[in-house]
Amino acid sequence: MLGLVLVVLVTPASVQDRDGGADVLREAGREFPTLEHVWVDGAYNGEPIEAVRRDTGIEVEMVKRSDDVRGFVVLPNRWIVERTNGWLGKFRLLSKEYERSLESSRSDVLLAMTSIMLNRLQTLGLYRREAR
User: Fold this and answer.
1) 42-65 pLDDT per residue, tens
2) What are phi and psi of 38, to 5 degrees?
3) β-bridge mates for residue 37, sequence order
4) Which of 28, 47, 65, 103 is deepest in the core (most CB within 10 A)?
């Protein structure tokens, strides 16, 4: 709910979201055994996601946009992902694909998220000093 990145998987453009999402969910289940529930968008459906549900016990809830709604609508819980993407979009390093390897691109995302978290800690420290 904080919008922090738990797992990063960078894949070639030829990999479908559903297939990459299954790998991400498996990794998240290994790294965070207490993870019980995740929200995903409509692209993450089908057998690969069902297999993850069976294998890991993680409840995967799909948040779909209603077909009868027109225009922009904030969808429950999906705005958290979009907000995090917005935070990451502020980093020039991630604005274009400058790297040649997938691992280097993954490191760039982790570096940006580390910067965001450190900035939050610094901001909290400033508030504490002002409160004294």
Assistant:
1) 778 888 888 988 998 899 888 777
2) -135, 150
3) 59
4) 28
| Mean pLDDT, all residues of the chain | 83
Q: Which pTM does this prediction carry?
A: 0.72
Token reading at 80? 């958290």
pLDDT digits (tens, 9 = 90+) for 75-84: 777 777 778 8
How many other CB atoms are found less than 10 A from the CB of residue 112? 19
HSE on the CB side for 4, CA within 13 Å? 10
Please state at what angle helix 47-56 crosses helix 17-31, rounded to 10 degrees. 10
In whole angstroms, give the CA distance from residue 16 to residue 45. 11
Identify the residue whose tokens are 């297999």: 51
How far is Cα 86 from Cα 112, in angstroms, rounded to an integer?
12
8 A C-beta contact, residue 10 and residue 97: no
Provide the domain count of the chain. Answer: 1
Q: In which domain, by residue range, is 88 found?
A: 17-131
